[in-house]
Design a protein that fits this description.
The complex is a heterodimer. Chain A contains 12 helices and 8 strands. By secondary structure, chain A is α+β, with helices and mostly antiparallel strands. In chain A, the strands form 2 sheets. In chain A, strands 1-4-5-8 form a 4-stranded mixed β-sheet. The radius of gyration of chain A is 21 Å and the shape is globular. The two termini of chain A are 37 Å apart. By secondary structure, chain B is an alpha+beta fold. The longest helix of chain B is centred in the middle third of the chain and has 36 residues. The radius of gyration of chain B is 20 Å and the shape is globular. The chains are: A alpha+beta, B alpha+beta. At the A-B interface, helix 7, helix 8, helix 9 and helix 12 of A face helix 6, strand 9, helix 7, helix 8 and helix 10 of B.
Amino acid sequence: VIDYGDSPAEAKFRADLTAWVKEALPHLNLPQNVDDRDQAEAPWHRMLYKAGWVGLSWPVEYGGKGLPPTYEAILNDVLGEAGALPPPAIGFLGRALQMYGTEEQRLMFLPGLLSGEVQWCQGFSEPDAGSDLASLRTRAVRTGDRYVVNGQKVWTSRAAWADWCLLLVRTDVDAPKHAGISCLAVDMRSQGIEVRPLQQATGSKRFAEVFFRDVEVPAAQRIGPEGGGWKLAMTTVKYERGPADTGMASRYLLALRRLENLRRDGVLPASAARDLGHLYVQIEVLRLHILMDLLSRGAHESTGPETSVDKLLAIRTEQQLGQTALQLMTANICKGEDADWLYDYLRSRAASIYGGTEQIQKNLVATRIVGLPR
Amino acid sequence: MDLTQTDEDRLLFSVVRDFSAKHMPEVPPREETRPDRSGWRELAELGLLALGTEESRGGPGGTWLQVSLVARALAQSANDQPYLGCGVLVPALLAAADGTTGHVSAITSGDRRIGLGLRADLCGLACAEDESYAIGFDCGGADALLVLASRRPLRLALVPAGSRLGAIDSSIVLTRTDFTSTDVATVGDPIQPEAVASWEAKALVAVSAGLVGTMQGTHSLAAGHAKIRTQFGQPIGAFQAVAHMIADQYVSTDAALSAVQYAAWRVDNFPNTALMAGRTAKAYTAQVARPACETTIQVLGGMGFLWDSWAHVFLRRAILGSAIFGDDQHHTGMIGEARSAAT
């Protein structure tokens, strides 16, 4: 039955969570500089975990609460509304370990991942393997009970302070390119790993490139079978930082409120009402589509390619938001005022690049959903 | 929260979709048509006329979510029955007033059709006191139009259906009735302004649902063509330049569907506060429907520019549907003002 309202249990959950956030948020010391906010992610993750808000939809046997995805949606809603950081994006890693890990690996990695005591990064992209990820060249050679890894990863966020890395490597150079890839869990303190920060167009240094020189990784830390890395990445990537689990709609709504307040205070002209109304419509439709994607299809159908629709809507919305803010404040931005809006605008240009470019997402929609020929 | 459709609603949708597909000619009619009476009978027999109007008011009951399913299923095949106007919006508005049950019952049974009388800008109901004429919307086979007789007190009235206009879509009948030269017969007791506001939300949802159906219809046309039309030795859908246009069209269509579904739920459960959701759905569908239909013409190329292709019918419907009860500009302005008034 189509019902957008909270059940009594959901309403209680929402109320409890809202009360907790109100109490907890002032203690978080959210850095003003958006650049530094990544650093606040780990403590926030641990705070959420201690209060019982992490792993809501994870199976109980892996430390989760076994709740339906509705609760994750409410978590995103409430955190976004409050202007808090989004919940930790551990769905992808958790799913990979749950589906492909051995019992030993699950016991070793899942508790720390869930609690935030152990921070992870993701070593996928390479300088010559971006959209064509399967052409990656970072090499892992098996010698006895270990692999020796050589190569380079790039655009690795959180690499600077992560404890572990989920790394895609080539273990077989003779196999077809998709079949020669394996997945390793690598301790970032291993000998031979070097992390170099990358400065982005915004000025931010959130990303890094990671170099591997003769890094030894125990074979027991391979996740899934040898040559099964591509399948692992593809079947679990849909749980990665999807718009559904990063509270995107709520965060855009918060940015819109800032613009609406500027208009109310006379900083923006009254005539901006239509532009702001237009933004509201885009954000609200994004929120509703994410919900529909999460709840109506999730139960019985694969949610795979539908995530691309959410992502494409999020790209449109974020870039529209960035452009509208830029247009409304362009003179001030040129004079170096309102730097946070310039930052938001510039960052919105990356929305159509990271996590699978806009063009890759459109390919996925065209072939996997619409059924157009390749 | 639970967004899974009931089996009953799924069945309803497929029954109407089949009805609609069955009545779709191979090519669009070359001249102005009138919806045939047997199709209207069938809709009556399926219990779809006055759907969403309570039984106590002479309707068959049903939810606005169901109305939106039916409107969408009909629009997918560019059905020519005046379902939105005569079928659901008129009885729902009549039902807002006491003393109209007889009229509603006649609509439910399929015996009578009454069209909706709109202002000249098509953004709202015409009022006989304020305007000199009404534009009859979706009134094929109707003998009368429902308009506002006066705003204080708020009363409804019936006027003759008037003369047909050579409107944008040859199968959706628009008419014009001059108030000065005709009888304005009040109908029912005075109604509360809130009742009209919640009817407006219903109207926005129903028209938006029709626009989503139009988008789904035009999308099937484009996707179907791109799969079989071969150029340069391969189906044109294999070219990214074509595939990406169709992907964009799909994204807009699916997003519009989620907005309409939510607004319909809102109408069913919180009718007094459904207007914002209705405006959001209408603003979004009006923003994306026309570009989606333009995409199909581009994908179909020269074939899509022929009268014999349904592409231009979907486009015409998108333009008309976007204008009825206000386009995206109209509603985003209202939304922007309403949100700043609330903060």
